[in-house]
Amino acid sequence: TPPEPMRADVPANLRRSRLVIACVLDRSGMVRNTAVLEGGSSELTTKVLAALPNWKFRPVLKGNEPVEVNAILGFDIDTR
Question: Can you spell out the DSSP letters for 15-70?
């Protein structure tokens, strides 16, 4: 089953800017080992990176077992 955000607050009142982050979602659903793939504004990048340790996802399940997965998080990305 895919991860689902349970707690994923983004700081308010930030200037819009594209930001792409690679990370690991551990077996408990916590964000670990973050790396900026595409930096946004310095303010957005700094504040989002500071917020990520507080994020929590429903763990990814393979069968009935939680597994660690690599993930890409995108912010302010237009997918049209």
Answer: PP--EEEEEEE-TTSBEEEEEEEE---HHHHHHHHHHGGG-EEEPEEETTEEE-EE
CA separation for the pair 35, 48 (Å, rounded): 12
pTM, to two decimals? 0.83
CA angle (40, 47, 25) in 5-degree steps:
85
pLDDT digits (tens, 9 = 90+) for 29-51: 999 999 999 988 888 889 899 99
Q: Which of 80, 73, 3, 23 is nearest to 44 (CA)?
A: 73
